[in-house]
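Retro notes, item 3 of 5
We never archived the inputs for the magnesium ion complex last cycle. Fixing that now. Sequence and ligand:
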Amino acid sequence: MGDTFQAERVTTGVKGLDAMLDGGLLRGSTTLVKGAPGTGKTCLGLEFLASGAERGEEAGAFITFEHFPRKLHRDARSIGISLEELEKKGLLRTVFTSPEVFITQVRQPEGMLDRLVREMGLSRIVIDSISHLERLSDDPLRLREIAYSFINGLMRHGLTSIITQEEPEILGTSATAAEFGISYLVDTVIQLSYVEMDSSINRALLILKQRASCHDKAIRQFRITDSGITVEKPFEDREGVLSGVPVRRELEAFMEAFGKKERRKGG
Ligand SMILES: Nc1ncnc2c1ncn2[C@@H]1O[C@H](COP(=O)(O)OP(=O)(O)OP(=O)(O)O)[C@@H](O)[C@H]1O
Ligand SMILES: [Mg+2]
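Structure as it came back at the time:
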């Protein structure tokens, strides 16, 4: 049974992330990557597609509701990915569309996904971002139905998917972010965050859930460079990392001891 799961893992292409995910994403599963603006959601999606395509094994599509293809190509270049080359080889397609059109296409027989699967053997897909679906309805129940049928559509086509979601809070996680229950519908949830430490901003990655896997529970630092994302060591000696403003454990211990001494002196 364990061997079967191992065989069905799909690499994310992100250095250090597959190990956190018990070997990678499960083939045919859906992953939500959520985070504040600029935390690296689009970069992570681009690396995931490029890693499948560069091996010449798995064709991918990047569905964007916000970036013109030119901007996406520029963003990919900044982390060492040439989308042009992958597109020329027929291993990658970028689709700039509206949520309305995409939802209709996912549901429709012989729609966009059927065509991409038939024409290029589509296996991986990134949707950037699901937050744009919010404008399709004011009713949270209706939005949940839309998200449900949309995720089912991706699964029906056997795609390994990454869906991004924007969070408004820069520091800390936002309980108020429009969720429409999507975290419950997906197999894996990855949280990207900013963390303020020693007067500078660091990046943090945490796997909030992964079905059928024993995933890493640590909150790890990561970097974005011109060769992509690298996940590194956990935040050591810090507490409250998810608040965005963690405190150093030794400092806390020192302050506690110092405080007691002061109180003893005074009392
Ligand atoms: N070569 C690089 N070196 C260092 N940082 C880089 C490099 N390329 C991109 N970045 C950083 O990556 C971040 C952009 O990441 P990305 O566009 O994936 O974020 P995002 O979460 O998708 O943001 P948004 O919600 O605004 O779409 C920027 O903060 C940028 O500074
Ligand atoms: Mg983005």
